[in-house]
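Quick one: structure tokens for this chain, please?
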Amino acid sequence: MSTRRYRYVGPPDLRSAVRPGSTGHAVRYATDLTTWLTGRGTAELSEPFTYVVAPDGLLRLAPRRSEHVACAGGGDVLAAGEMGFRHVSACWAVHEVTNQSTGYCPDLDSWHAVARALDRAGVAHPGRFTHEVVFRRCERCGECSVVREGDFVCVFCGADLPVAWNVAP
């Protein structure tokens, strides 16, 4: 079970725009999630939200068009991606969750941090990423690529990509 920390690898100007003390909404308990989601509009609830799992193990949420680095307050994360919710039996539950974050490019093992954060808060979830994104940094050109359909080839220069996650040290 990984507890790897992911550092921000996205555009520096996005990180420098993060205001000190700003982070996403912390979800310690299911009631925190209910309170926050109750304040969202119908259109916003119909799409997934930006999330990170902070180094303290807490899930933090922000509106979808928020940057992951802002949701994380500029710091490292244990996981990052997008998360959608449905109201089920008078409770909110996760119905979709990804590791899609080009700012952190987390590996698939970041799921463990997501599951721990949701379990800790008492929020039901699907038990896995419902959409997995495989990120790799090209050792030839240095660009970060998304591996599609198991084809470990850089979309920028055509070089083979490593099988093991290598986006950041």
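The CA atoms of residues 23 and 73 lie 5 Å apart.
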